[in-house]
Write a structure and sequence with these properties.
Blueprint (H helix, E strand, L loop, with lengths): L4 E5 L4 H12 L3 E6 L13 E5 L5 H15 L4 E4 L1 E2 L11 H29 L2 E6 L12 H21 L4 E6 L8 H13 L18 E2 L46 H15 L8 H12 L6 E2 L5 H10 L2 H12 L2
Parallel strand pairs: 1-2, 1-4, 2-3, 4-6, 6-7, 7-9
Antiparallel strand pairs: 5-8
Helix pairs in contact: 1-7, 2-3, 3-4, 5-6
Length: 335
């Protein structure tokens, strides 16, 4: 097996961490990157080189790529694994949070890709492996902005694959289905938090912090992106007797937190928790195996769909009438 120099983002936990260790054990020179360097130190004992990187900061991206090239003289594989998922109704999610979702899941990925391409073109070889999701093929209930980011990664990767073929560079999409990582609990918490109505006396103001870049079938911890005025409010898991008061249509707010989707959000969060604690979903090794294949194959596939039921769900979305698929998705996720 040919040793390759690999830069992998979102390596601090979950899928990213397991993938970095697996690739290092195969003999590759792996640089595992994440925002919080202290979470990467234990990877050194596994043969992984820790690297501080904030994918939303272009200067941090440039420094990380330069560090790898300076140490190794080349870069063979970029695994864009950093990402996170924020669920919530379109009306509830502040636009500032929607922008952060795209900054991490799409523009950070694009920034790193642009930085490594001159080196790969010079080598006339290389691989860009982008972690997307089956959620780049269809949309689940209350997941608008997460799916916007994954649809965008799909389109970006398809265009990039055609552009780079003459330069000997492969572009691969990893499209996991539901994977047993902390992503499910994080998504459920975000959904409950953003659904809470804002206090009339204290309108919500979106947090300025950027969530950590975690794997997107997403598996590392992500700081709460809900407004500080509501993040600490306890959420009841029981049934609610009536809907909270909601703002008048004459006074709409882009700060979100309308409270209009609270009941549906609670039920959807409960469904996500049940699914992620069940035996129906695959473990992270399914994804690490797919990424490993994309790295090592002489001619990698354009797409890998690891995890149970992923291909089945994509096929159902293709075959079923749109309104029927919408009905089944909403009915299932609010049951």
């Amino acid at each position: 097996m040919q040793q390759k120099v690999i830069l992998l983002t979102g390596a601090s936990s979950g899928i990213g961490r397991e993938t970095a260790i697996r690739l290092a054990r195969q003999g590759h020179h792996v640089y595992g990157a994440a925002r919080r360097l202290q979470l990467l130190q234990s990877l050194q004992a596994q043969g992984v080189h820790p690297l501080q990187l904030d994918v939303t900061d272009p200067s941090s991206c440039a420094a990380a790529v330069q560090a790898v090239v300076s140490a190794e003289g080349r870069i063979d594989v970029l695994v864009n694994n950093a990402g996170y998922g924020h669920f919530g109704a379109v009306e509830d999610v502040p636009l500032s949070e929607a922008r952060r979702q795209l900054e991490v899941n799409l523009f950070g990925l694009a920034c790193l890709t642009r930085l490594v391409l001159p080196h790969m073109r010079h080598q006339h070889s290389g691989r860009i492996i982008n972690t997307s999701s089956i959620g780049g093929h269809f949309t689940s209930y209350l997941g608008a902005w997460y799916h916007v980011s994954k649809y965008a990664v799909e389109a970006f990767s398809d265009a990039l694959r055609m552009e780079l073929r003459p330069h000997g560079i492969h572009v691969v999409l990893i499209e996991p289905s539901s994977i047993r990582t902390p992503w499910g609990e994080i998504a459920a918490q975000h959904l409950e938090e953003v659904a809470q109505p804002a206090s009339p006396a204290s309108p919500s103001s979106p947090s300025s912090s950027v969530p950590s870049a975690s794997p997107s079938s997403p598996s590392s911890s992500v700081p709460s992106a809900s407004p500080s005025s509501t993040a600490s409010r306890p959420v009841s898991s029981g049934a609610i007797s009536s809907r909270p008061s909601i703002p008048s249509p004459s006074s709409p707010s882009l700060d979100g937190h309308t409270g209009a989707y609270l009941d549906e959000s609670r039920r959807t969060a409960a469904f996500i928790r049940r699914l992620w604690s069940s035996s129906l979903i695959s473990g992270p090794r399914a994804v690490t195996a797919a990424i490993s294949s994309a790295v090592n194959a002489r001619r990698p596939s354009a797409r890998y769909v690891p995890g149970r039921f992923g291909r089945t769900l994509i096929l159902l979305h293709t075959l079923l009438p749109t309104r029927l698929f919408d009905y089944l998705m909403r009915r299932t996720m609010t049951s």
